[in-house]
Amino acid sequence: MAPSSPFVLRWGIISTGWIAERVVSDLLVDPKTRDVHDVVHKVTAVGSRSVEKAQKFITEYVEGDKSVKAYGTYEEVYADKNVDAIYIGTPHTYHYVNALDAIRAKKHVLCEKPVTVNSAELRSLIAEAKKQGVFFMEALWTRFQPLTLELKKLAEDGTLGAPVVVHADFSNDFGIRLPKTHRMMDPALGGGAILDLGPYPLVWATIALYEHPSNKSTKPSNITATMYKLPATGVDCNTSYTVTFAPNPATGSTLAAQAVLSCSMNVASHSPGVTIRYEKGTIIIAAPVPCPRSFTVQYFAPGKPGVVAREETRKFDYVGSGWHFQADEVARCVRDGKLESALWGHDKSILEMEVFDEVSMLNYNKRTLFFY
Ligand SMILES: NC(=O)c1ccc[n+]([C@@H]2O[C@H](COP(=O)([O-])OP(=O)(O)OC[C@H]3O[C@@H](n4cnc5c(N)ncnc54)[C@H](OP(=O)(O)O)[C@@H]3O)[C@@H](O)[C@H]2O)c1
């Protein structure tokens, strides 16, 4: 029997910044190079605050495809009948309004991380997406990568026992002499480390702990956090946060584990980015934390905690930079009429936003003291 043709998802791209360039480049990688044969991606429209920028983006990143529409407003992309799904790559504080407009135009939505700037915005978007009957997902690309899928199988087959502690950090040296108007420095654009970099340490805590079968999807029992805020604009530069999961008779969770997480915007990333410590071994994930290409599993000798009896490293390679796997998930969900992903569903974005709400509240009105 001849194989059926792949499902084509037609994308409208909102904004022409750094991440939009990366995501569109990956959308155009032939899916067959990653052994995907059931879905393909087509960019049909690009929207920018300037039509010239949209056209330049198409010339540079969509191989100058003349059929792709360049628009000088985002609204025209939402209204385009040749667009099925909208990708949103604007600064954090615009995600809510951009996603809301797209959803109300009955478009499916993939929205960059952090999906919104608080859980109230997110809950309202999810309600609207359900009302309009459209798919809605945060672009937490790490969750869909082949490394993650493989790691989860191994972490949950019982060999390593229960997870106990996760350590994860994601840092990036943005250079704190950035202009105050740069999105990382500007509170009005959601600047600071926690909203931009914080989702990545947290996604590993979510994968290793929240998603662990013993947790029964139970929310954390406790969150702590501390921040160093930059005097120039007051955004957080370095943030440490812990997320604890306690056994919960009400949900049936037996997980007792803690994630110790951090993010910084003034220092380079280091490796390993993530260490997941189990009763009977350790998983060490090489940086970069958003898109690692290898991990090592250390198995302890039976009855000898901490004594490594065997070590195994797995490496992952593919064409492109790793953003295409989330797009394949969107295409499959849209094809199958799903409103959310089973891998990164609405509950996980809500968990993320609730953790960040708490991290912010714990540091609200707390200014860093300076001693000179
Ligand atoms: N998944 C990932 O790996 C990843 C990596 C980096 C960033 N991100 C996320 O993607 C989002 C954008 O980050 P980015 O680094 O791509 O930012 P960026 O380079 O500054 O691009 C943001 C784009 O948003 C549009 N925009 C709309 N209103 C704006 C405003 N008031 N100020 C500035 N730009 C505005 C602009 O495009 P037009 O002028 O064309 O409208 C701009 O080019 C953030 O939420 C960030 O967390 C994700």
Instruction: Give the topology string: H per helix, E per strand.
Output: EHEHEHEHEHEHEHHEEEEEEEHH
Global morphology? globular
Q: N- to C-terminal separation?
A: 76 Å
CATH topology of the largest domain: Dihydrodipicolinate Reductase, domain 2
Query: What is the total tally of β strands?
Result: 14
Q: Can you describe what's shown?
A:
With 372 residues, the chain is α/β, with parallel strands linked by helices. It folds into 2 domains: 7-140 and 324-341, 3-Layer(aba) Sandwich (Rossmann fold), CATH 3.40.50.720; 146-315 and 351-362, Dihydrodipicolinate Reductase, domain 2 (2-Layer Sandwich), CATH 3.30.360.10. The protein contains 10 helices and 14 strands. The strands form 2 sheets. An 8-stranded mixed β-sheet has the order 8-9-10-7-11-12-13-14, covered by helices on one side. A 6-stranded parallel β-sheet has the order 3-2-1-4-5-6, with helices on both faces. A hairpin with a 2-residue loop joins strand 13 and strand 14 (304-315). Helix 4 packs parallel to helix 5 (119-132) and helix 5 (119-132) runs antiparallel to helix 10. The radius of gyration is 21 Å and the shape is globular. The termini are far apart. The mean pLDDT is 95. NADP nicotinamide-adenine-dinucleotide phosphate binds at residues 15-19, 48-50, 53, 89-92, 94, 112-113, 139, 141, 183, 196, 290.
